[in-house]
Amino acid sequence: MEKYNILILGAGVMQKPAIQWAKEQGWTVFVADGNENAEYRHLADSFVHVDLADIEGMISAARRIKTDHGLDGVFTAGTDFSYTVARVARSLGLPGLEPETALAASNKERMRRVFRENGIPSPSFRVLSSQDEPRKVLSGLDFPLVVKPVDNMGARGIRRIDSEAEFLEAFRLAGEHSRSGQIIVEQYVPGPEFSIDALVVDGEPRITGIADRHIFFPPYFVEMGHTMPTEYSGRVLQLVEESFTAAVKALGIDKGAAKGDVKWDGRRAVIGEVAARLSGGYMSGWTYPYASGVPLTGRALELAVGKPPGSLEQRKSWVSAERAFISIPGVVDRVEGLREAAGIAGVRDVFVRVKQGDPVSFPTNNVEKCGNCISAAAERHAAVNAAEEACRKILVRLRPGETRTADFLRGETCQWVPAAYPQAMAWAKEYVERMPEFRELNGSPTGPRRITVLPPPSWLELEERDWHGLSVADALAVLEKEPGIRLSEESKNSDILVGSLFWRHFLRAGIQAGLWIVDTMSRFGGEYFRQW
Questions:
Q1: Quick one: which of 105, 137, 172, 347 has the most CB atoms within 10 Å?
Q2: Domain check: are 178 and 64 in the same one?
Q3: Per-residue CA distances from 344 to 64, 169, 274, 369, 387 (Å)
Q4: Closest Cα partner for 9 from 70, 50, 69?
Q5: Angle at 421 between CA 415 and CA 425, to 5 degrees
Q6: What is the pLDDT of residue 172?
Q7: CA–CA gap between residue 60 and residue 68 (Å, rounded)
Q8: Within 13 Å of residue 58, how many CA atoms lie on the same side as its CB?
Q9: How many structural domains comprise the chain?
Q10: Residue 183 falls inside a structural domain
Q11: Residue 154 confidence (pLDDT)
Q12: Are 519 and 439 in the same domain?
């Protein structure tokens, strides 16, 4: 077995499969990360503390490694630093892309211009600086539009706009997330979206996986999961593959890895973006290997050291699903249900990205989610059901009395967030308004207050589902399992009876909000809410 020395940029969860695979082959692994406490630095042989955006610093670090130990390749996955990789490779004479190619695959303006010049279907666009007068760019473009930074990933700073009135806020948001200060405004493309991975061998892209992306929460673009492989086939899939392959070649990606986001608008496969790396989002390192049996990250690492990749032939034809769990605004008190989620048949991984004391927000991008569950099964429905059920088992409990949650529930922040149960909210509006807000029955309880929540009307539809697929009935069952809380018309042996205060916020923001109301009431009593 040949052994190599590899430098991997990034030591977070998205780089874990690369570090592990290289170590399993007996390679010597050096990792670099700007976070001195990067989660998986301990898996490597050596760690270098350097910002991935510091190109000259990375080149110097790589040169020291090469001088002291020898270095055969440099690699990244799930980061937007393929340009740094290319610069390091060029400076040290290692296998890799031309830096200009990597830059074109990292900067959305350059990328769009290449696509336009080569007849690759992609959205109409304009580019401006954060210092420019934003409205001038709107001439010649029709709403809806998408505003995004030219040089970021994970849907950071991206927003759909449907009117000029929404543009200034979207312009500001994109500017905050643009390292270069440049912003791109492009035509919105409707339709299903696909995520694609490929390895480029001898100049030819070899597609290694196409997944369906599940995007939610307009005007933002939050991926709540993906399913590998895609459900689409035939002519649609053929055109998606052809557009992606043409885009990879137009950019000049002639070796290594490539990933793309492609939309089908009903007539054409429109390229959203192509990057010179493997995908993040748990696709290249988890769902594709689970579905196909192919160690895709390992094959990409082989290319990174100049070695022909091993077999890309699929060993099995399974389905793997990744789904996310999220939170309303607040501060994490604890995360419940992890063991139950991990124990569901077919679930392979549960990733938790938040811990006690962390601030959380309703996501506007793919970085603000609380965690992910990944499943694999021989049948599509089994894989999808397992991942979704796992997410429903997990509950991010929020710190009682926390201002961030109170402000959200009062409607002072994040007013765009969709209601958890909009139909029930509308149907029960008058009924809820007739309920008492809350009533204190025992003025001086010792210890936590015992809470009774008035039940919903008997005619209320309880099967409507929230963002995680949790029905009203399911959510109320969670509530009734809580010690010191019951759902009843009878308030005997209770310290506080809660009515409309609970139901308004539960129907608006789900079980998290309902539990936050009763937890806050139990700890602080009615005085807290009288000050709202």
A1: 105
A2: no
A3: 47, 42, 35, 21, 9
A4: 50
A5: 85
A6: 84
A7: 12
A8: 28
A9: 5
A10: yes
A11: 65
A12: yes
Model pTM score: 0.94
Contacts of 206 (CB under 8 A, 6+ apart): 198, 199, 200, 312
Query: What is the C-alpha separation between 188 and 315, in angstroms, rounded?
Result: 38
In 3D space, the residue among 57, 74, 59, 93 whose CA is nearest the CA of residue 9 turns out to be 74
CATH label of the domain that carries residue 253: 3.30.470.20
- R_g over Cα of the chain: 25
Would you call 398 helix, strand, or coil by DSSP?
strand
Mean pLDDT by 10 residues, the chain (532 residues): 94 97 98 97 98 97 98 94 97 97 92 96 87 72 89 80 88 83 91 98 96 97 98 97 98 97 97 94 96 98 97 97 99 98 99 98 96 99 99 98 98 96 95 94 78 91 94 96 92 91 98 98 93 84
CB 37 within 8 A of CB 10: no
- Domain of residue 335: give its range: 320-398
Size of the chain, expressed as the number of residues it contains: 532
Q: Are residues 458 and 524 in the same domain?
A: yes
pLDDT at position 165: 86
Q: Are residues 145 and 172 in the same domain?
A: yes
Distance of alpha carbon 189 from alpha carbon 262, whole angstroms: 10
Alpha helices in 320-412 (DSSP H): 338-342, 380-393, 403-409
